[in-house]
Amino acid sequence: MKSILLAGASALVLSACGSTATSPNTATPEPKAQAPATITAANTSPCAANFSSSGSFISGKKFSTQVPLPGVSKDTAFTKAYGSLAKSGYQIVQSDKGAGVISAAQGVSFSKGGKSVTLNVVVQSEGKGSSVSFSFSITGGLSTSEDAVRDEFCRIAGDMGAKP
């Protein structure tokens, strides 16, 4: 089973472990520890450089990054983030332009009961521009690729005007 699929619209798609039928005699393999990302020209942008994750498959994981948006006003950055999320298929759960906060949800693949996870985006004024912070958390038993999450954060930040 793949741990994450990057859908055609580049939205994060998670899979829930244990929600597909398995034989009672079939052992479930333990998740493998992910190797640290290799630093390349493609991931030395502030978005990739500031990316972090914490937690585990059992306890759940949190992914985050912060990206400066020099020369992009808070209002423009917010509007672009909102549009990028909506165009990519996220369900906008709540937003507050004044506070610069967007909470967007996405369904979990193969989950029972329509489970969803939330991506939080916070846009703040910073100097002569703005900055954006992303936070995405998954509960224990869910799995996703760190690379896919980082790439999705950076894609959205790029839509907002972040420098590569």
What does the overall shape look like? globular
Q: The biggest beta sheet, please?
A: 9 strands, mixed
The parts where pLDDT drops under 50 for at least 5 residues are 1-11, 15-41
Secondary structure: helix percent:
10-25%
Strand portion: 35-45%
Number of helices, counting only DSSP H or I runs of 4 residues or more: 3
Structural class: alpha+beta
Order of helices and strands: EEHEEHEEEEEH
The counted number of beta strands is 9
How would you state the average pLDDT, rounded?
78
End-to-end distance: 32 Å
As a whole number of angstroms, the C-alpha radius of gyration is 17 Å
Layout of secondary structure:
Blueprint lengths: L3 E3 L5 E5 L29 H4 L2 E5 L3 E10 L4 H14 L3 E6 L4 E9 L6 E11 L2 E10 L3 E2 L2 H14 L5
Parallel strand pairs: 2-6
Antiparallel strand pairs: 1-2, 2-9, 3-4, 4-8, 5-6, 6-7, 7-8
Walkthrough of the structure:
The protein is α+β, with helices and mostly antiparallel strands. It has three helices and nine strands. Strands 1, 2, 3, 4, 5, 6, 7, 8 and 9 form a nine-stranded mixed sheet that branches.
Primary descriptors:
alpha+beta, nine-stranded mixed β-sheet, 9 strands, globular, disordered N terminus
The gist of it:
The chain is of the alpha+beta class. The protein has helices at 46-49, 74-87, 146-159; strands at 4-6, 12-16, 52-56, 60-69, 91-96, 101-109, 116-126, 129-138, 142-143.
